[in-house]
Amino acid sequence: MSLKELILKYAPVAVQDAGISVYNTHLYRQRHRGEYKAYQRYYRDFEQAGADRIAQEAARRQALFLQWATEKSPWYAPHRGKELHEFPILEKEQLLAHMDQIRSIEEREGIVSLTGGTTGASMKVIYHPEDMQERFALKDYFRSRYGYKLGRKVAWFSGKSLLRPVDLASGRIWRDDHINKIRFFSTFHIGPQYFDAYWRALQDFQPDYIVGFPSSVLDLCAMAQERGLRYDGKVDTFFPTAETVLPVHRELIPAMLGCRVVDQYAASEGAPFILECPEGSLHIHPLTGVFEVVDEAMQPAREGEILVTSFTTRGTPLIRYRIGDRISLAPDDHRCACGSCFPVVKHIDGRTADFIWSPENGKVNLGNISNSTKDAEGIICFQIVQETPDAVDVALMANQRFTQEQRENFLHALSLRLGKSMRINLDVVDHIPREASGKFRIVKNRLSPAAMRPLAQG
Ligand SMILES: [Zn+2]
Q: How many domains does the chain have?
């Protein structure tokens, strides 16, 4: 057992809180050293720059990055001098299997980042310390546009497993970093049983900002609404992380907590950034990397899977990396009212693996499925699991407004998307378990690739 585990298991809460404060302060210093300040200025400067200057700088960053990768990474050495589109696509399996050839620095020279593997294997990448400073400089600059800075009160809802049975028994479902004014909530125990403890802890803390899984904050808000509670206070901004933000998150969370919802995309393997502007548009940040959107045949498209090339991944260069997420682009001539010339993304559509296979309609993606709740009232959340091609199991949490009529509306909407021959088994439940990472998955597809065959014609 490591010291950290020992402390988490046996030390009194006050000692744990102090330990968390010290650890956070250490992380903060590591990320804010060196080039951090210079990169904050860099990103502030380029925010309002003209299209030509941006394009020029993006091209310079891309050239520098490809040069670094082909000089320092044995994996990329054979591609020296090539244009970006001539590089091979990097699959997740390759990144896992050939990490030692892909990386350009030793583990001890960099910062190791582990990604919770929702698909099984967990991913390890090494960051160049300067790249980490740049990523934090941009993230902090982005959040500072909404008034966020270290020292303002923040409630975190992320996948940390930080509680013991004794904490649950006493209703202490959080840990405090008193130095940095951060309250870390467990995302594993949000449910009717501990709702009161959560609501009281949030209400007492009065955070200015919330950062974390939108599904967790939504669950809390939905349960509060169901109980007729009002939040006494006002959260300034909610910054969702790690999960796809759905329309229901943007409706219910602001309605209950009085906050804005400001989204971002930046996966922990080190993807380039997509950041929401004050006008509510999602902008690709062209100085952080390249997003190529491709269709099933890997040809350029407006909507589909993305291949990412990320300039801040020199430690483990990601070039045309098939990260497993989907986006839809807005038309090229779309101009955002915020004045930025950065390209606009219509939606971030979530993980490519999150679809239901319909023998009639083919792949039905997460975004499309989550829209089925549009005409049905009273749904808090649902999860749809597919184990055979012709049936799905839907577990659904709902309140009193979910009447027989609403149930039929929902089933009708699902059936429209999944095809008439799909059997839909709907169960109303009290609780839907989360993944080991603490994230909530709406869609779980457990079909083997061989089972996904179109319906025979005739
Ligand atoms: Zn904008």
A: 2
